[in-house]
Amino acid sequence: MSTLSSLNLTAVFGVALVTLTVGIGCGPATPEKKPEASVAKEVTDPLSIKAEPGLFERLRIEEPTWAEVGLKVTVPAHVSVDESRVTRVGSPVLGRVLELPVQVGMEVKQGQELAVLNSTALSDAQLAFLRAFSRRQAEERAVQRAKSLLEAGVIGTVELSRREAEFSQATAEMDVARDQLGLLGMSRESIVRLEQTRQIDSVSRVLAGINGTVIERRVSVGQVIQASESLCDIVDLSRVWLLADVPELKGGSLSVGQPVRVRVPALPELSIEGRLTFVSATVNPATHTIQVRLDVKNEDRKLKPAMLATLEFTNHAEKKLVIPLSAVVREDNQEHVFVQKEPQVFILRKVSIGHEADSNRVSVEGLREGEKIVTEGAFHLNNERSRRALKGTEGS
Predict the structure, then answer these.
(1) Which of 17, 25, 60, 219 matches a 20 to 30 Å C-alpha distance to 302?
(2) ∠ CA 169-175-180 to the nearest 5 degrees?
(3) How far, in Å, CA of 206 to CA of 97, rounded?
């Protein structure tokens, strides 16, 4: 029994000694390593960027601002003649067209011959004038003789008064005949020449009353036309109208004097800014549009009637949150802005942007009042973000 106890005691002391030796020699226990697959990799947001000091100094950071912004409306328009500057040249007599030297688009001067007509009505009027003119001369001589006879005591004052009345009537008839010749297109000089030569001329010459451009010719050589029938239209194109039909839902608040801008696709270098000179007081019941007009100078004749144009105006002013155009970044056909998350950290956020208002854009969705965004340097910041994202993709 004593021998067995000694052996057991020796074994116990040996185990304890080994345990103590191992504990002293190895020091603190090493934590168990996790499997490599379970270690989470650090992920970088591709839409986020930390600006380095050199780049950060080039950025301007501001908050969106509130501004009175109107809705920009664009409607089709066209160039039209100024109807107050149109002259419709009519025939003064019934006659046949002998000559018609003018063509559509031709520039004419005041007094220039537009047409030559042969008119029997003009001949009849000239003959009536010559008869009235001769009768007046005869009555004038009769008055002179009557005065002489009265002085000689041959006739009385009653006879002189009768002859003076006949002379006055003859004078009135001659004046009427002269006015008729004027209505038939004869000039004062032509009438004086008729008095002197007493030669009847059945040719009527139609002259231009203003300087302008022939925009329509209504007759042809050889055609018989009635008195007052239109031969051609002449218009002064130094001023023109720009007309537009604005839908009533968009143009209900339009008024005379409202500023507008006009662009003409055929003249891209031309931008016209002016004010409305006319707004129709009625709505077209067929199209539910309101006609508006802008008077425009056209001294160089670049604007031609029937040219297409667009009319732009601002309507329904409201207070809106706006951001500068320089803050907007196009990415994947979407509009974005850089929003500041930390002093030098920015994140590219998609936003919904409205129409332009001066040098700003109206913010519709995606931004809140008080958030700070990059308003200058956004383009360079986005280039750096794209470069880093591309480099990170290649490294992985």
Answers:
(1) 219
(2) 130
(3) 10
Buried b / exposed e along 223-253 (16+ C-beta atoms within 10 A) = eebeeeeebbbbbbbeebbbbbbbeeebbee
Please tell me whether residue 266 adopts helix, strand or coil conformation.
coil
Q: Which helix (H) or strand (E) holds 9?
A: helix 2-26
Burial of 296-316, coded b for 16+ CB within 10 Å and e otherwise, reads: bebeeeebbeebebbbbbbee
Spatial distance between the Cα atoms of 75 and 115, rounded to a whole number of angstroms: 42
Encoded tokens for 200: 């009847």
pTM of the predicted structure, to 2 decimals: 0.59
3-class SS letters over 286-320? CCCEEEEEEEEECCCCCCCCCCEEEEEEEEEEEEE
Give the residue-averaged pLDDT of 271-286.
93
* 363 touches 354 (CB < 8 A): yes
175-216 pLDDT, tens digit per residue, is 999 999 988 888 888 899 998 999 998 888 888 989 999 999
Query: Which superfamily does CATH assign the domain made up of 73-82+238-316 to?
Result: Efflux pump adaptor protein, beta barrel domain (2.40.30.170)
CATH of 89-119+202-235, one of 3.30.479.30, 1.10.3260.10, 3.30.70.120, 2.40.50.100: 2.40.50.100
**Which of 309, 308, 306, 268 is CA-nearest to residue 104?**
306
Sign of the CA dihedral 52, 53, 54, 60?
A: positive
Query: Where in the chain are the domains?
Result: 48-63+328-395, 73-82+238-316, 89-119+202-235, 121-200
- Tokens read off for 25: 């020699």
- Residue at 352: amino acid letter: S
Q: C-alpha angle with apex 235: 234 to 236, nearest 5 degrees?
A: 135
- How many Å is the maximal CA-CA distance in the chain? 208
pLDDT of 263: 94
In what helix (H) or strand (E) does residue 56 lie, and over which residues does it extend? helix 53-56
Q: Which tens digits make up the pLDDT trace of 64-87?
A: 888 777 777 899 999 999 999 999
What class is the 121-200 domain? mainly alpha
